[in-house]
Amino acid sequence: MKNKRQWxxxxxxxxxxxxxxxxxxxxxxxIAQSIGQVKALITLxxxxxQDSIRIDLFTSEIVSTSAIEGEHLSRESVRSSxxxxxxxxxxxxxxxxxYHTDALADILMDTILNATPLxxxxxxxxxxxxxxxxxxxxxxxxxxxxxxxxxxxxxxGPIGKEKVHxxxxxxxxxxxxxxxxxxYINTDSDDIYIKSAIAHLWFVTIHxxxxxNGRIARIISDYIVSQSFGSEYKYFSISxxxxxxxxxxxxxxxxTQNLMENPDLDCTSWxxxxxxxxxxxxxxxxxxxNRVMSKTKFWDKVRxxxxxxxxxxxxxxxxEYDEGEFQGDLTSKKYVAMxxxxxxxxxxxxxxLLKHGCLYQIEGTQGRNIKYNIAY
Length: 376
Fold this sequence. Notes:
two-stranded antiparallel sheet; Arc Repressor Mutant, subunit A
């Protein structure tokens, strides 16, 4: 390296990360308030609804943390793996899981439910489970073992014109630094969300493994914040929020790890961004809970109305969390495609749903462009 002090691990204060506690306090307060809201609303739902939200969030967590690294998992496979862990009524005849998604579900459950202090052996087990059944960008990856070479580079660009974004800690320093990180995770009194952000940054700064460092860092973050929920399940997906802001995720890391841009080892900007993602994830959870509550109220409202199977199918689809094929509201053509019926029948069904107050016509739409939505 031309500059002998280019990366934060070369700073004389490393690994003492500096940050502005007072400046971060409003974000931490918002997280606490949102968690309080989530816990209060969750208690208003029945067990089936709680389980449904939890399964959706955990599925998103696994799918998203892999997507950040460019690995695209089958959501159906991941969901099956999660349901096998949480749903005692799961029908194995509909099992779409794989060894890989089962292993990822095992890791997630371990981070959430196993509150024992984090030790080196557990880190290695996570790494083995994470990469045993998936292709790696490294041909001879060492599973559950730290790398034994320097110049671990994060690069982008075509061959011959690569841009080096970061170079990891020299391998001979990995063991000592990981020990310090584990002590910090297990004993430090930092706010748990600040600790989660710092541990994430610290781990990817060490970059101890051949591959999978970003995913392990997010697993560590998940483990840390899950401690605040005690024996309860967490109700948020931080990886989903990060995936939605993926470019800034890498930009913030690169800026924080480069001494040319961050000469004072100040990680306030990184922590602030990370706390914002926590708040985003909690807002998504609140939105999911409100959708479930609205769905329950809707079915209570229409349960005395006689509806045919086509109408019930379309209403169920409109009420699904992801809104899938009905994104952009319901039209007669979408109704036809969904129910495999004629356009005339679709229009009659829709008129009945309007009459019963199950649907409403969206203002400003008319003629062939009439759109409808669910009437909560």
